[in-house]
Structure formats: structure tokens, C-alpha cells
Predict the structure.
Amino acid sequence: MAVLHSLAAVRAAPGLWWRAARASLGLLGPLGPCPGRGYCVDAAQSPPTFGFLLDIDGVLVRGHRVIPAALEAFRRLVNAHGQLRVPVVFVTNAGNILQHSKAQELSALLGFKVEPDQVILSHSPMKLFSQYHNKRMLVSGQGPLVENARVLGFENVVTVDELRMAFPVLDMVDLQRRPKTTVPLPRNDFPAIEGVLLLGEPVRWETSLQLIMDVLLSNGNPGTGLATAPYPHLPVLASNMDLLWMAEAKMPRFGHGTFLLCLETIYRKVTGKELRYEGLMGKPSVLTYQYAEDLIRQQAERRGWVAPIQKLYAIGDNPMSDVYGANLFHKYLQMAKHDGAEERGADGLWKRRPSATQSCASILVCTGVYNPKGPEPTRPAQDAEEAPFHGHRDFSFSPGLMEASHIVNDVNEAVQLVFHKEGWPL
């Protein structure tokens, strides 16, 4: 079901998505080895046939502090000229930052130039949902929300704060923010909202939960009331399903997946129906890994590496997002190899998309969410107490997909393991 859900998300995006992604990212350009972008293979080394998908929080950094093993890992990944020896994409479920800002942040922490087109934020695949780009969308999250939405292609967005200011009587939980004077008359000049973008966890959850519900229940006209809530409701695009994530604290922190859980529960409690998503992306969605696969392939093409990238190694710290997602994508690759992967062409017909990628291995590190001393995440429920499922509601639980291909201490050991398997010098 998870595979089908992700494929449905891909099919919601019209056109040949990998070409659209390349054009929107500005990645279509001349090929050639080492064109000054910080990537090259050592002269004596064969072109790589593998690439890395690296998680960030809990693998490379904890909060704003770099994990020492990450510096060691990149001493192996980067050659004497300061250029990467193999293609690398950073795949994070973070989304409250701009892509180029995240690249600058990683460059400063890791000590080499990270390009923006190497960074995939949780909401990056929203660029593919062009059918919603011209609609008026309510956007939730924090950080550079409007700028992020516009980078993704959304031309007409309104923030939760703008909605709250337009309709001050909607935000009633905080006594300090309730209207103290005469209640203003309802506005009739506020354009209807046509959809909802959930880019990341907001700051004031009660305000965002209330106003998003108002928009869904009123069919985009929160200043009015409807006798019956519309269903299906307005389209909702969401990214980052992580229930938990790891920062400087000893215990994991709430992620955007926790916010989504709250919204889904409230919607079902109020309406008796399930909240539905037109697109649900970020790890472990197959759509995110397809997007990453294409960026890896584009890196290889630009650097003139003639050998196709056949193997991907996904390194992460969260069994539910990193391991589950990589294994789900590996399962998708095997299905595609057997049945043939299909994509929608410009003429609206489904077409097969050839891919050289044959496998995606999951490598779990112990520097973040995963605790090797805690309950075994792959243990099936027997007579013992069943381990809780931290995944999203729309991804049916498959215990086998929680089992990492390898478990190592940190990202440096992970890189050494991959180089050894691929016969590359350390």
C-alpha cells in the first residue's frame, strides 16, 4: 500500500517529472569532467557506479553541532583537490529553511562546497505538483515560508498569520490575542483559499491547527460557516512525516509528523472522516527517493562519469524514515525491474522510464534517533509487548522494511563499509 500511495503521488504530477525537475532546478547543462563545481574522480580511479543519499540530523549534525565522525567521513569522500569522489545528495526531512541556505550551512560545517542542487528538503518534490502552483494556497510552517513556497512554484500563497490578522476572531485559545474591543464584522473581500501546503512544523500549534481546520471545514472561506463540511475537502500537500527527530537534547523531539497526527486526529474527531492528502512527501515516500535518484544521475552526467550509477546507499539514523524509505525504494526498484516503471508523458499516456539504478541499501547509524540499547525496531510482535509504530498512517507497517541492510556506529564507518564493498580505496 505504501508503494502504491507513493506512486499515486508521483502520478499526481503531470509531465515527465524527471525532466521537469531538471529544468526547474536549472540543472540541464553541458557535460564535462570537473566543471568547477567541486566534484571529480581521482585520475587513477574508475568512474563511480554508486552514490550516497545522506540524512543530515542525527547523521552529520546534532542541532547546530557537527558530529566528529562526519568530518572523518568527508575526508574519505573528498579527494586532495577538495572534490567529491562519488555523487552525494543530502536528503533531509527538514523544511523550515531555504535550499541554498541549507547548502551554505552544510558547507560551513563539513569544510567543502555543498551545492544547492545537492540538497533535497522534505518539500522539494512539491515542484512537481504544477497543477496547484497557480491556486491560492494556505501555507503552514515556519522560517522563510513564502519564499520557500515560491521557489517550489506556488504563485499565490497566504500564511496562517495573514489569515489570523484577516479574521481575528478565529484565533481564540490565547487569551492575550483575543479581540479586546468590538468584534469586527466578517470580511467578504478575502479571496477563497483553494488548498493547503504543510511545509513543516509551525510555532503556535493551536493557532495553525484551528485555522487549517477552519479552511477545510469552510471550503476555503473561513469567515463564513457551512451547515455541512465538504468532503472530499480541499487539496492538502504535506511534507515531512517524521514523528521524532534528534537535536542536542538526550531524547528525541517532536517532528512535523506529530503535528500531522494532531491535525488528522482532530479532523476525524470533528467530521468522522479521514483527512486525505493529494501529495505526501519526504522520507519514507518513494517520490522523494525517485527525486534523489534523478539528482544523483544528473551529477554523474555533468561530471562526465560515463559509468551509470547502479547502486545507492542511504545512510540515516531514523528506522522509520531512513531505513523504511530506503527499503521501500529498493522494493520499488525491484518491481520496476520486473514489471517496468511507468510515468505520464506530455501526451497524457503512461510511458516506461528506464533506470540504471538497481538497488538501494539502507545503513543505520547510532548517532541519532536509533538507540541500539532500546527496543529492537525490527522485532516482530510475538508474546512480548509490541514495539510502537512511529510511521505515518498512510504507510502500512511492514516489519521487514524496518530491517537495515547494515547497522554501524556512525557515518564514517558507513562510508568505510561502502568503499570496502565497492572495492574503493579508503
